[in-house]
Amino acid sequence: MGTWLASSRVSPLILRSISRNPRSVCSQAELPKKPVPESDSPPQNLKSSSDSPDETSPEPHFPEIATSGCKDSVLTQADVISSLLSRKNDPDSALQYFKWAERRRGLVRSIDWICILLHILAKDPGTRRHAQNLLNQLASGDSGPTPSIVVDHLVQCPESFGLDPDPLVFDYLLNSYVRAGRLDCAIDCFNSVVGRGIFPSLPFVNLVLRELVNSGLIREAHDVYDKMVANGVEGDSVTVKILMRGCLKEGRDSEAIEFFMKAKEKGTELDAVAYSLSIQAVCKKPDAKLACELLSEMKNKGWVPSEGTFTTVIGSCMKLGTMAEALRLKDEMVSCGRSVNVVVFTSLINGYCKLGQYDSALDLFYRMGESGVAPNMVTYSILIDWSCKNGNMNKACELYGQMKKKGIRPSVFTFNSLLQGLLKKCSLEEVNKLFDEAVEDDIADVSTYNCLLSFFCSEGKVDEAQHLWGKMLSKGITPTIVSYNNVILGYCRVGNLDKACSVLSQLQDSGIKPGVITYTILINGYFKKGDPESAFNMFDQMLIENIPPSDYTYNCLITGMCKASQTSEAQVRLRKFAEENGFAPSALTYNTIIDGFVKEGDINSALAVYGEMCEGGLYPNVVTYSTLIKGLCKSNNFDFALKMWHDVKSKGLHLDVTLYSTLIDGFCKKVDMESAWQFFSELLEVGLSPNTVVYNSMISGFRNLDNLEAALKLYKRMQAEGVPCDLRTYTTLVDAFLKAGELVSGIDLYTEMLAKGFVPDIVTYGVLVNGLCKKGQIDNAQKKLEEMDRKGITPNVLIYNTLIAGHFREGNIQEAFRLHNEMLDRGLVPDDTTYDMLVSGKVKGQRSTSTPGASTAVKM
C-alpha cells in the first residue's frame, strides 16, 4: 500500500510507525491558527475549515467504484490518481471523491495524488480553502516530507500527468509553513520554489519576511530579500517597511534609510508608516535636517504625522542643539491637532538648560503644568540637576520636594545631583538630613556614599570620611575602587601617607586590584610631602604589579621632580620614559620642565627644552611662551623676550591676558613703566580685560616709582570695572601711602582691608612695621610684632632689622639688643645688616642712633 512518505525517502522507523496506524497522516487534530497578516496577507478565503462532511448528508455515488463488484475492495494509488485526473475540471467532485475514498476505503495518502489534488482544488475559489487546509496539516506535522521534496512533487506531478499547474499552491505552501511557526521550513520552501524558476506572489513573500523579522531572524530576512532582487522582484511598500523594521531592530539605521531612499527613487508607493519609520531611522543618526524634510513631505502628501513622529524629530533637534527648530516643530505639532506630551516638554526643557537658558527652562516647566501635562521622573531629574549646576539650591530642593509629594520616586542620579549641589554650598546640615532621608528610603547606593567620601576627603576631613565608611559597611554596601581611591586621596591631602598606604593594603585584601589612579594618587601624595624617593618606590611597585602607567602618572612624576627643584633629573627621566616605556610627552610635559628651569633661574636650559619640543613636532602654546618670556624678563633679557613676543603674534596664536600679564609684570619690575603702559594699552585695544594680576603689577610698578597718584588711579579704575582686589593689591597701596608719608591714609586702607575679610601675611606686616618705624611710631610697630605672634606668624629677619633700626634711631639700645636675642631664640639667623647695626650702633643713612625721628602718633 502506498504512502506519501514512501515517495519522500523518509527513515524506515517513521515508515513503520505510519504502517501501524495508516490513518495518522489524515488526523484532524486542531492546528495552530494562521498568522494575522497586514494588507499584504494572502486572501481571506484561506481560513481553516473542517474536511469532514456533514454526517447527515447522503453517501456520494462513484460509478467506477460501484462496478468493481466489491464494496470493501482497497483502492490502489493508480485508481485514486486516475479518478482525480478524471475530475480535474470539477474541483468540487474531486474533493468529494478524496473525502469518500479516505473515509471509506482506508486509503493512505500519497504525496503524488495529494499534489494532483492540490493543483485541482487551487483552480476554484470555492475549493481553495480546502487546499490550504491540506497544506496546513502537512506543514504542522513533524514527520512529513521536507519542503524541498514537497516542492519537487508539486512541480513534477502536473508535468507527469498532463495537469495544468496552479502557482497559488506554492503561495499556500509558504503560508502553511509560516502559520505552523516553522520558519526554517518556510525558508527552505522559498529557496526550493525560487530554485525551480517559480517566484511566489509578493504578499506571501512579505509574510515570510515579516515573520522572520518579528522572530529576530534579520539576516535570514535579508537573504530572502537578496533572492527577491536577484529574481527581479524589488518588493513594494510593505517589503520596504518590513526590512526597515528589521534594520532598526539591529541598530542598522543607515541601511534602513537606504532601503527607504532607494524605494522612493524607484517610485514605490510609500505610505505614512514607511515615512514614519524612515524619520525614526534618520533621527537615530541623528540628522535633524533630513528628518524635518521628510516630515514636510508627509504633510505635503496630506498625512498628519503622529504624536510619536513629532516627538522623535523634536528629540533629534534637541540632540543637535537646534532649539529654534525644535520650538517651531512643537508649535506645528499643536497646529496639527497633536498634543504636546511629556517627552516633548522634557526634551525642550533639557534643551534650554544645555543652552544655559535656565530661566526659560523653568518657565516652560510651569507652562507644562498649566497645559495639564504632568512632569515625570526624567523631567524633575533634569531640572533638579541643572538647578544644582546653576547654584539655585532653593529651587532644586523645592522641585525635589514636589517630586516626592507627587509620589514620584527619585532616582539615585537625581538624589546624587542634589547632594553634590548642596556639598558645593557646604550646607553640611542639609546634606546630612538629605542623606539620612535617602538611606531610610533605600535610594542611596555606593555612588551616593562615594559622593560624600569625595567631598570629605577633598576637604581633608578624613575623620568624617572614616565614620561614613563604617556606616556604608554597616548598611551592607560594598566599597568600590572609587571608594578606596577617595579615602587614599583624603589621607594624602593631609599628608598622612602611612594611613594612605594602610588603606591600599585593605584594598588589596578586599580582592579589588588597585588601578593606575590609586597608585598615581599615592605618587602625587609623596611628592607633595617632599618625599620623591618614596614616590618612585610607589611607581616601581606599580610596575611590578603590571599596572601600566597613564600619561597622567608620568606627568605627575615629572611635575613632582620639577617642584622639588630636580628639573635636570626630571628631564633625564622624561627621556627614559619615552625610550623605555613608550611615553609620548605632550606640550604640558615640556611646559612643566621649562617652568622648572625658569624657576631655578636656568633660562638657557629652558630654551634648550623649548628647542627639543619644537624638534619633536610639538607646537608650543601660549603657556610655553608665557613661561619663557617670564624667564627672559627675570634674567633681564628683555630684547629676547620681545622677540619671542613678536614670534607669538606672527604665528597667529591667541594672545591671552596671562601672556600680556607676563610682559607687563617684567617691565614693572624693571621699573620701565612706559613700556608696561604700552602693553597695558594694547591689552585693552585687542579687547581683553585686565585682571587682578595685571592691575597689581601696574600698581606695584608705580609704587616703585613713588607715583602714588598713578597707583591710586589704577586702583579706582580697578574698582569701577569690578575687578576684585586681593591682599597684594591692598598691601602694595598701603606701602605706597606709607612711602609717600601719608600714614593716616595708609592705615585707613589697611582697616578697610581687614573689614573685607583679608588676613594680613608676613609681607603686609613687613610693610606696616617699616612704614611705622620710618614715622617714628616704634610702639605701634612693636604692637604689630605682638599681633603676628598671636596669629602664629613668625616674623622674618627683615622685620626684626626694621624694628632694631627703629630702636637705634630712638636711642633704645637695650631694646634693640633684646630683639636680636629674640631673633636667635626663634631660630632666625641675623644677616650682615643686623650685625652692622649692632656693631656700629648706626643705621645706614643715619649719622647717629641717638637722633629720634619726629612723628605724630596714629592710633592703630
TrEMBL record:
Keywords: Repeat
First and last residues of every PPR repeat: 166-200, 236-270, 271-305, 306-340, 341-375, 376-410, 445-479, 480-514, 515-549, 550-585, 586-620, 621-655, 656-690, 691-725, 726-760, 761-795, 796-830
Pfam families listed in its UniProt record: PPR, PPR_1, PPR_2
Entry superkingdom: Eukaryota
Region (Disordered): 22-68
Record carries keyword Repeat: yes
GO molecular function: mRNA binding
Membrane-crossing segments per the record: none
Family classification: Belongs to the PPR family. P subfamily.
The protein, known as: Pentatricopeptide repeat-containing protein
Organism: Linum trigynum
